[in-house]
Design brief:
The chain is of the alpha/beta class and about 240 residues long. Helices cover about 35% and strands about 15% of the residues. A four-stranded parallel sheet has the order 4-3-5-6. It has a two-stranded antiparallel ribbon with strand order 1-2. The protein has a two-stranded antiparallel sheet with strand order 7-8. Helix 3 crosses helix 4. About 40% of the residues are buried.
Length: about 240
């Protein structure tokens, strides 16, 4: 399967512009019934909103080590509020790259889902990556925005990335993402992305050389869930 030709929702076309020529793509086979995706879909909506619709908002989504439980309804509300902040407070437009950094927490997952629903491109990096590695990743992906756990922000600020707007979460300042999100209403109208719009750029660690980024489309994210996760992991 080659690029579909369906109109992109991205107004910032950086990711699509930097894909290899179509003739150099591998052959992507979507011949299983569960992979018959429509030309337009948003993986954030498919993973979250359809789950809420199918199983109800009270189903647990996250359980943390301290006993905190987030239901799917609570997760959906927070994701939509973060997406509102991205669009209306931070000025993120579809196709912008948004770097995500922090320990693995429900808030990090909520930020990722919000980036998906806003039609932006998530660049999730390791919490332990150093300032020099972060600077290289931001340069390669032309990252303009970052959502960062307040506990992990020092190296990111130390990277000295010109023009990078960093918004922290988990703190107590008035401009903390959690405070901005609390002031925003939901629900959020999900951006109507094309199935082959880029959803994320996954980078290697960069510990043995220059980091390398691999771009994945919205349909690719769902394909992982509908094949490997469904048939190998088989979560229950």
């Amino acid at each position: 399967m080659k690029p579909s030709g369906t109109a992109s929702a991205h107004t910032d076309t950086f990711a699509r512009d930097h894909l290899p020529p179509a003739e150099d793509w591998p052959e992507l086979v979507f011949d299983l019934p569960e992979l018959a995706y429509p030309d337009r879909l948003n993986c954030g909506y498919e993973l979250l909103d359809r789950t809420v619709a199918g199983f109800g908002p009270d189903r647990p989504a996250f359980r943390t080590g301290d006993g905190t439980v987030w239901s799917y309804g609570e997760l959906s509300d927070r994701v939509d509020r973060i997406a509102q902040v991205l669009t209306h407070d931070l000025g993120v437009v579809p196709g912008n790259r948004v770097l995500l950094r922090g320990p693995t927490t429900p808030w990090l997952a909520a930020c990722w889902l919000a980036v998906m629903k806003a039609g932006a491109v998530a660049v999730t990096v390791l919490d332990r990556q150093r300032a020099s590695e972060l600077a290289t990743i931001c340069s390669l992906a032309r990252v303009g925005h970052a959502l960062c756990d307040v506990r992990s922000v020092e190296d990111l600020l130390g990277a000295g990335v010109h023009g990078l707007r960093v918004t922290t979460y988990g703190g107590d300042s008035a401009d903390d993402l959690t405070e901005l999100a609390a002031a925003r209403p939901g629900p959020y109208r999900t951006v109507d992305t094309a199935a082959d719009d880029i959803a994320l750029i996954a980078f290697t660690s960069g510990t043995t050389g220059r980091p390398k980024g691999c771009m994945h489309a919205h349909r690719d994210v769902l394909a992982v869930a509908d094949t490997f996760a469904r048939h190998v992991l088989r979560p229950g």
